[in-house]
Amino acid sequence: MALICSRIPVRVLEVALKCPFFWADRLIEAGRMLHVFAKNRGMISGSGMPNYAEAAKFVLKKYVSGELLFAALPVKDVAEAYPESVKVDAADAGVPVQQGAPGLPADHT
Questions:
Q1: pTM of the model
Q2: Does the pLDDT of residue 63 top 60, yes or no?
């Protein structure tokens, strides 16, 4: 849950889960997000506490099905990220050409 909360902005979580979290542009903690979501959706256990397991199951199901999208910007300089597996072809005007998967030998494609 912490990974989902760190990757997905609060506004996207609010819209996708239809639950106001009242955190402007800050990252939300996983426990606090589950607490607010469970109380808002009425997921209460027998003792009156929010049912975190049911709330987490619901959020993870949305994430796995693709309703909660995570997208990252591409790495600006791929050659710095994987120097052993990427070469820059001068004919392509600086477009990196990948030789193989990171961590594999250069001759293995």
A1: 0.61
A2: yes
